[in-house]
Amino acid sequence: MKKDLKEQFVEMVQAHQGVINSICRIYFVTSEDQKDARQEIILQLWKAYPSFRGEAKLSTWIYKVGLNTVLYQLRKTKGIPTKTAINTLVNSPAQTCVDDDFQQLQQLISLLKAEDKALVMLYLEGYSHKEIATTLATTPTNISTRLSRIKKRLQTLYKKYTHETK
């Protein structure tokens, strides 16, 4: 491949590493699994990069490749979080910092079904319902309905794991 294509790829990965890291953090509990997933996503991006046509936003394309890579890995390894992994996530000691709420939200999101995690990630990144629908190959109405259900599910999980009662 041409050197400038390699440089473009490296710049793209550096510019969008937050997207890649978010996908890995939400789908995998351990830092080792997150690193492995990150490497696999970057490999798949590298393989697909020459065929990127620019019909979608670059960030949308990266999400799609990243999500497909992670979902394939999870299907291949039957990557269902174990009860131990879930307890580790939920019962990890809270650190006092500004990001506590965000970390807690990420932990709760990690307990959702794989497809719901993808939807929430795109929503939190600020994508419109139409853009999310395009990325996940569904309709904006379906996205609205699913988001509403996911919000209720997250509220239930939050109450369950913080021992709140209504």
Mind explaining what this structure looks like?
This protein is mostly helical and 166 residues long. Helix content is 73%, strand content 0%. The protein has two domains: 1-80, Orthogonal Bundle (Rna Polymerase Sigma Factor, Chain: A), CATH 1.10.1740; 81-166, Arc Repressor Mutant, subunit A (Orthogonal Bundle), CATH 1.10.10. The longest helix is centred in the C-terminal third of the chain and has 22 residues, at 140-161. The protein starts with a helix and ends in a 5-residue tail after the last helix. The model is unreliable at 81-98 (pLDDT under 50).
Question: Briefly, what is this?
Answer:
The protein contains nine helices and no strands. Helix 2 packs antiparallel against helix 7 (114-124).
CATH class of the largest domain: Mainly Alpha
- Compute the number of structural domains: 2
Following the backbone from N to C, one meets helices and strands in this order, namely HHHHHHHHH
The overall pLDDT, averaged over residues, is 81
- Radius of gyration, in Å, reads 17 Å
Query: Which shape, going by the Cα principal axes?
Result: globular
How many helices does DSSP assign?
9
- Residue windows where pLDDT falls under 50 for at least 5 positions: 81-98
Assembly state here?
single chain
Tally of strands: 0
Gross CATH architecture of the largest domain: Orthogonal Bundle
What is the CATH topology assignment of the largest domain?
A: Arc Repressor Mutant, subunit A
* Percent of residues in β-strands: under 5%
Distance between the termini: 60 Å
- Describe the largest sheet: none
**Percentage of residues in helical conformation:** over 70%
Structural class: mainly alpha
